[in-house]
Amino acid sequence: MGLTNNDILKKLRVAHKLRDTDIVEICALVDFKVSKSELGALFRSEEHPKYVECQDQILRNFLNGLVIHLRGPMPKKGEKK
């Protein structure tokens, strides 16, 4: 079985040494609101009763925000870096 969205999110969190507050701020960079309690449910064990499966929309917005966080915002057309 392949990696789930939850697994990918967990691995990126560890690789970039991100805390829940960092992830909330990264999602805010793309105007996507997620709370610390929602993140807690995503990082729980699959056997936990309050476990929530990470939907594609959450992972997509986190990845887009992570790009902005690491590289900075894209320059507008006609602008130089």
Describe the fold and architecture.
This protein is an all-alpha fold. It has four helices and no strands. It has helices at residues 5-15, 20-28, 36-42, 56-71. Helix 2 (20-28) crosses helix 4 (56-71). The longest helix is centred in the C-terminal third of the chain and has 16 residues, at 56-71. The relative contact order is 0.19. The model has no long low-confidence stretch (mean pLDDT 92).
Main pleated-sheet profile: none
> What fraction, in percent, of the residue positions are helical?
40-55%
Pairing-aware structural class of the strands and helices? mainly alpha
Report the count of strand segments: 0
Could you tell me the strand content as a percent range? under 5%
Terminal-residue CA separation: 43 Å
Give the low-confidence spans: none
Order of H and E elements? HHHH
Estimate the global geometry from the Cα principal axes.
Answer: elongated
Number of helices: 4
Calculate the mean pLDDT score and round it.
92
Radius of gyration: 14 Å
